[in-house]
């Protein structure tokens, strides 16, 4: 086909996956620099799209699943009059929406029985994988489609608006603008098995405060119980140096907080991926999930404790959660001191 004028990328539905897809999205923009590149994602993720690649704009999709959502998405996408759609989602529904939208070229992986809905359907086994990392899954797709394979590197750009929103929230919570910030994201949407114990997070927060720093807790509304448990574990005398923003930030403001922080402590989560993409040194504890598949793209240190049952990929631990509980606060404190922006890919095991 001739070089497309208008390209829509169907981005992943989760924040972490969207960040991991960013190098492949950038590669599409590099391949067709004269084309308009738009990224269709759930509306909640739309503000992040231009941070990952300023050349792109977002198409905020309303509703997530079901026939009604497919119809709404098709109507929204039809209005874009796209020449080409590249699907980073694997679902039948996302391919059906593109077909119903009348996009003439629809490219993606042949998954979920949707091959007949795509004009170029790539089998996963026919791609060239350079690693088992999930970002390489997206990179392998665009390479199979004729786009030069991107390097798996990323540095998101924090807009001034995000910075301003974050500063306003932090100053309202007592930050003076100079105290070293540690952002803690103690929640995880996947399930409690991915959460490092709140008592351990509290120990790290207390140590950071003891050295004159300020701790900010971030997360979505469902993460409030985890945030409350962290606060409860910090001595009352130190709680004045904690700003709890759980459930109080927009996604853009969350990016601002993570970008302003000197260090980030997070589970395997969207916050982890966004923080590292922004260039903030990030320490993460991995237990049930695969660090070799979902390590962040940016400066980071991953800590694990090897047991026979990990990575189990379970949402809830049916045993004693030793893969997470055995990672000590002292190891995390040491990692927070050691991790630095220029070199990030370091996995420490025990």
Can you offer a commentary on this structure?
By secondary structure, the chain is α/β, with parallel strands linked by helices. The chain has 2 domains: 6-144, Glycogen Phosphorylase B (Rossmann fold); 160-348, Glycogen Phosphorylase B (Rossmann fold). Helix content is 36%, strand content 16%. It contains 13 helices and 13 strands. The protein has helices spanning 15-31, 49-52, 67-78, 92-100, 134-144, 160-172, 198-210, 224-233, 251-260, 270-277, 291-294, 322-325, 329-338, and strands at 6-10, 36-42, 57-61, 84-87, 105-109, 120-122, 181-185, 214-217, 242-244, 263-267, 282-285, 300-303, 346-348. The chain has a 7-stranded parallel sheet with strand order 9-8-7-10-11-12-13, with helices on both faces. Strands 3-2-1-4-5-6 form a 6-stranded parallel sheet, with helices on both faces. Helix 7 packs across helix 13. The longest helix is centred in the N-terminal third of the chain and has 17 residues, at 15-31. The termini are far apart.
